[in-house]
């Protein structure tokens, strides 16, 4: 993974993601805190509402209880029962009396809209503030609430709007149904059905719903979720469990939670009234408040902070992509350039743009590469001068060595009074010295072979009938150049080392071979060969730190110095890809191979 990806991933891991997680955690915790605090406040409000509703129903029960035991009301039940015993209906006088009694007693309580009195056999009498038909006895007796009324045995049963289909479903119409007992004998006299219109209920919820909290809604629901009352008069008769599907459980204790109500995020609070002793069967109040109203300015501030945070993160990301990425790209380009320089490409340069520190760094890198290039050139020049000095030293070692051997041979012939041979050898020696004294370091193969032939003819005078030689060279290779005095030391080594102890006639073969991109020169002899120990002393060296006399030993200097010098000269002149190879087996002769490049131009 490159540096750019690492920095970007680090930016995400240590800046973006932590900020996002922190923001999410703060937002979630703040939501929960707001929900809890406002839920607690709403619960206090619902407790107050519950007390007011309790007192409302308590007052209504108190009024109905008061008049139910009055002689005037109980007298109506007895009169109806007496008429029934005579199998006759009440007279108009009785009816007027009943109406007057009810209006002067029960109907004096303003929330009561109508009253219906039933005896045990179904006779009934009703009175009300407005005209309207009373609930028939058979309908009441067959209703689902009738058994519950009887079970309460005189205690009231409150019925909300639409709670039972047999009763009315008008808005705010509450019914109180109860069994009426004889005050003295506690016998069952009949039943009473009161219809209430609680305007006080509107006042109760209105007092807890100010203009600033206009988004708040209060619902009065029964145990099955039926909405008996809605202060906004919109969802009465609906089921709150359907409106808050899967969110509200009326079986749970008082609690608050967030939910969508009519496609709006809201805070919902449930509070059980716990006024069953008043005849209210498991009713509850549900408070629904828009979340915007709950969170208020805090939500706005949090959104503003979140927006500012995202804007900051955006600019941080832009900064990372523009500025940090630019620096990383500079580092990557510099790394790539350094690798090129490491591979030897000193022409590598970095682009310099701008006037900041990155441009100064690029200029510094380019200056460093130029300095390294100059130093390498200086080292190369010094190495070339060193190589030339070594080459001149090696040549200076070869010339005296060869001259000494030749003069020694002439001296021997002179002692033997062989003047003609001395003359010929001096002539050949002059030719050799003329070639050796030339300033050129490289000569053509043609001249090298002529030099070698002169040398071999000199040696034939000295070692007459002891060896013969042959030279084989393709004409097309004679114009290629070679370091002068390359072959002569090898032939000299063969004569001095290979032929001295033998009793048979020696043979030296010089062969020039075209080997594609280079030329191979083979010098073979059928002498005594070289032992493995001595052959190791002629091993090709790539460095010259060890003196030759230490490698060869004092007794071997004359025989090994020329050969080793030839190998070193070729290495210095042409490089490590070229040089000399020796193959020899004791008693079977020696083969020396020189490898040089094909070069038709004049050398150093």
UniProtKB/TrEMBL annotation:
Name the SUPFAM superfamilies on file.
ATPase domain of HSP90 chaperone/DNA topoisomerase II/histidine kinase, HAMP domain-like
Annotated compartments: Cell membrane
**A Gene Ontology molecular function term of the record:** phosphorelay sensor kinase activity
Enumerate the Gene3D superfamilies for this protein.
Answer: 6.10.340.10, Histidine kinase-like ATPase, C-terminal domain (3.30.565.10)
Taxonomic classification, please? Bacteria, Bacillati, Bacillota, Bacilli, Bacillales
- What is catalyzed by this enzyme? ATP + protein L-histidine = ADP + protein N-phospho-L-histidine
List the coiled-coil residues: 365-399
Q: This chain belongs to which protein, by name?
A: histidine kinase
